[in-house]
Predict the 3D structure of the following.
Amino acid sequence: MSLIGNQIQNATLARYPNATAELAIFALAAGVFHLFDAALIFIPQMTVVLGKSAAASRVCLRFILVVSGVLTVPVILAAIPAVGAPLLRAIFNIEGETLSSVMLYVTLLSPNILLSGLRNYYIGLIIQARRTPAETP
């Protein structure tokens, strides 16, 4: 998530009646999300180095879609009560409504792993286009 996105999100959560609890709940869910999202940080560099041709760029994109999908699975599993509740309870020592709220936020954040992978891929393409001179016939 971007810095401005975090600020808007925090400002929105701060308007809730119990803002401190809501911000803490979201921070716990974001911790779960970022554990897997951080694995995608290499994508812009990979795209710049390996995606030199259209065919290589498509291979990079397929790889990123697969990796993003694989990384999304444990996040989704953490949002399933039978699987995620015992895990999150043990890791964060939370119970009841707080645990349910963390799991809801984890569910809502899970698609962002795929979006983050795609965003990083396109950032790599932009960097490559600006750093690599255009080929002339």
